[in-house]
């Protein structure tokens, strides 16, 4: 089975990929049941699907100074029973949908957690911040020397701050999940599995999203094969 989605598709690795099958987000799965999806984009010049990996993504961004069209912000038809203002994240396809009235949504391209860091669940926007400070979690400090020097926190507003200009902090009840929706200093990574679990948008898009989303907004994260978030 193959499904085309506006020039982007996710494919599972290994045997499923060889037979042209694709992963369809839409359920919350417990545990690492399958590998996370890889991304492919449709090349209209050749009529073929091509792997959209870190190398190709950076090459295309350097050449075009923008993301592939499918990952650019746009209004799309969207059927859901969720109320306007709800955020629905399709981690496999690398899209974030902000539900709008009238059967529509604003769709943003996103980067998601790399293999082993993907998650799924239902959370909420607990707070928002402009020019957020960045404090890497203890696990990142332990494994990443670059993060370790900022263990006490990096001030917001710096051009090298990984959270970019805006951040939406994701909570379960009154507890911070440590996951955020935020900007990025690496815009070419939109459409890839690259983060430690946070959802990243390019900076223009996260500013737009931030202006439209209220504290308390429901956030549904779908990623087939990912772990269900603890506590949800």
TrEMBL record:
Residues 85-222 form the L,D-TPase catalytic domain. Gene3D superfamilies: L,D-transpeptidase catalytic domain-like. The active site is at 182 (proton donor/acceptor), 198 (nucleophile). GO terms for molecular function: glycosyltransferase activity; peptidoglycan L,D-transpeptidase activity. One of its GO terms (cellular component) is extracellular region. Keywords: Cell shape, Cell wall biogenesis/degradation, Glycosyltransferase, Hydrolase, Lipoprotein, Peptidoglycan synthesis, Transferase. GO terms for biological process: cell wall organization; peptidoglycan-protein cross-linking; regulation of cell shape. Pathway: Cell wall biogenesis; peptidoglycan biosynthesis. The keyword Cytoplasm does not apply. It comes from the Bacteria. SUPFAM superfamilies: L,D-transpeptidase catalytic domain-like. The keyword Transferase applies. InterPro entries: LD-transpeptidase, LD_TPept_cat_dom, Transpep_catalytic_dom. Belongs to the YkuD family. PANTHER family: L,D-TRANSPEPTIDASE, L,D-TRANSPEPTIDASE ERFK_SRFK-RELATED. This is Lipoprotein-anchoring transpeptidase ErfK/SrfK. It comes from Mycoplana azooxidifex. The lineage of its organism: Bacteria, Pseudomonadati, Pseudomonadota, Alphaproteobacteria, Hyphomicrobiales.
């Amino acid at each position: 089975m193959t499904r085309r989605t506006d020039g982007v598709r996710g494919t599972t690795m290994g045997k499923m990929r060889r037979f042209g099958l694709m992963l369809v987000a839409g359920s919350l799965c417990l545990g690492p049941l399958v590998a996370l999806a890889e991304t492919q984009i449709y090349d209209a010049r050749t009529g073929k699907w091509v792997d959209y990996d870190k190398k190709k993504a950076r090459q295309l961004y350097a050449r075009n100074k923008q993301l592939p069209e499918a990952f650019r912000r746009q209004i799309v038809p969207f059927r859901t029973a969720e109320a306007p203002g709800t955020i629905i994240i399709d981690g496999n396809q690398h899209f974030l949908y902000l539900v709008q009235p009238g059967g529509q949504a604003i769709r943003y391209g996103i980067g998601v957690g790399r293999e082993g860091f993907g998650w799924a669940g239902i959370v909420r926007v607990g707070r928002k911040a402009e020019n957020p400070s960045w404090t890497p979690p203890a696990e990142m400090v332990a494994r990443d020397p670059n993060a370790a020097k900022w263990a006490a926190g990096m001030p917001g507003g710096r051009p090298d701050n990984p959270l970019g200009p805006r951040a939406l902090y994701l909570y379960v009840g009154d507890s911070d999940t440590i996951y955020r929706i935020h900007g990025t200093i690496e815009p070419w990574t939109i459409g890839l599995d690259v983060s430690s679990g946070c959802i990243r948008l390019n900076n223009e898009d996260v500013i737009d999203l931030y202006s439209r989303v209220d504290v308390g907004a429901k956030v549904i994260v779908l990623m087939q094969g990912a772990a269900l978030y603890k506590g949800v």
